[in-house]
Specification:
10-stranded mixed β-sheet, 6-stranded antiparallel β-sheet, 30 strands, FtsK/SpoIIIE/SftA, Putative FtsK
Amino acid sequence: MSQTMKAGQVQGDWELDEGVRRLEPVERMDGRAAVAGGLFAVGATALAVVGSDPGLLSASAAGVAVAALAGASNRRGVKRQELHDHLTEQVCPVLGLSVPSRKAVQLSGWSEGFVGEPGKVTLVYPARVIPDAIWTGKVTAVVENSLGGRYRVKSLQERKHRLELERFEPEQAPQEEQAISRTRQVVGELLGDSAQVKIELDNEGEPARIQVSHDQGNAMAMANRRQRVQRILATRIPGEWQARWDLQQDTVEFFIRTPMPTLVFPPEEHSSTAVAHEAYQDFQVPLGVDEDGEVLTWFPRKQAHLLITGQSGSGKTVVQHNVAERLTQAGWRTWILDGKRIEFIGFRSWPNVELVASRLEHQVKMIVDAHALMMERYEKIEDGSATLADFEPLALIIDEATTFLKGVDRWWKQVKPKGAPAKPPVLDLMADMARLARSAKIHLVLGLQRPDVEFIGGEMRDNFGARVAMGRLSPQGAMMMWDSAAIGTAVPRHIKGRGTALNANGTPVALQTYLAQNPDPNAPGYDEKATEAVRPRELLYPRKLIEVLGSTQTDIDGDEVPLSYDDYMDARVYVAEDQPRVGGVVDPTVAAPAPSALSALQNLTGSKDKITPKPETRGGIPPGLSPEHVEEPLAPPEFEAATEGEFEGFEGESDEVGVLELKAGDLVLIDPGAGRWAVVQEDPEADAEDEVFLDLVDWSTGEPEGVSLSATEMVHTRRVLQEA
């Protein structure tokens, strides 16, 4: 076709208009009929009025009806012709025709409706065309695109050069297929079309886990890019998505962040006895449920000691109660240093809790004796008289360690022997046990109100392979616990039992701890039935007491002199007359352990002697001491309740800084009207487009947030307070 043909110049039934093929409109006969009917009606009406002829009025009405019907038919025909011509213009080039021809396209079988949709499309193509599957696919695609429906090949008559397509309603793709297709599309847009995607669906057919192998390693090396991908995915695919990136293998796993429960109860099944060496090696203490719905545990053989921090009311003591109940169910020999003197009252008569020390001098003796036991075991291993498998595990639970040490400092000044160092040796003994006790099968459970550099600074912290921080941490505490000023600083204050802990991979994760029972009958919310359900069913270690000494003694001259440190450390430890009742025993008068428990204990100790109170005890009170000595403990160490300011750990005044000046742990004002702040999770970086994606956690709710800002934008922040 000559490119010089002017617009409007007709050849056959088409024209060239600025390079676009267009068909000339077809004049329809029903349009003329509508006009004629209208003119007839007007004329008949006029004559009827002049001549008062009823017959002419009837003729006028008929003319109006004819005009209306013809007009409607004309409008529908025009619309159908427009569809026909549009398809003809689009499909003829694909059919192999150099010019559009209405003779090559026929539409029939129109559906109901004013215009309707053609149910059948008949196409005539040139003889030179070889109608293979690729060609018919292209033709079908053009027909579907032009008419807006779904069509398939009904027949192909190659001798007549005719292709017939029929309209059909496809079956709705299953929800699973739609979800998979949508997910692959989104991931491809974010991580490249070459990304290999594996999708796991939940019970409702929605994506629950997406595993991707990609070739975007260089781009994803920037934290800003990874955060952007994660946030965009969360906006386009339903669910709260989290990601685990493997930058070495160029893979990423997206998974749904299920809402964490706000209340979880310990497993009903008791911990199995784990005293024998093989059972000890596999023993784990369940602590709660993490953000992935997995049970998080303390594994003593691999994670030597457990550290638990938390302000008053955060749930720290509840975690310690759960640990104590699980250890004693497993038959572990358990010693408890009750720093507040009242938190472990219910464990003073609890199976396999051998000692509970509430008096300060008893607490010091407990540490000294545990250290001595550790050294004794080392000596036996060294001289070959025993191996680690010969020892039973010992758990030493130390609650309120900071308060305990402050009390020891004051007490040491009163009892310090001449020539002894100015500082009490207890902290050094605890540090020794943190380093060495695991190899003697002794494990520490240390409770602190807040992270303290004396206990979790450097090497000391590394020895506590299991760490739990209950409630919200200050940025400084988060640095000591997790090496990040952001992690655990936005734990919701209103959720009891919520904290942060190390998972099996050593990564800090959110944790909802188990609501353990307090076995103290006078404790608020005491539940006798629930307490009995967790009571150990075997007594392997009898309850013991530490001799209560007064503050003075009579010397050989008959003078009253103060007791020394060594006197308190030499206090006798003896078996109590009243022993704990084991689980399943209803009769409260039954105090003796079951024979099987005694046998197990005798097998462990190699002794055939019965476990009975020593003959020199009198009602549990050593000879020479009056009941008054038992009733009058030393003054308890001072307990300083921590007060938490609204912005504890942050600078007092907010500041306006550039977004790239922010650091992990800083607070950012995200809603000035509501006074909402969020914690920056990672140091921000600008991408190639000078945009910064801030990965945030709402400071009040703990929910993840994210926002993209220009690299030059200013934000209001409260900086992490830098300690001198």
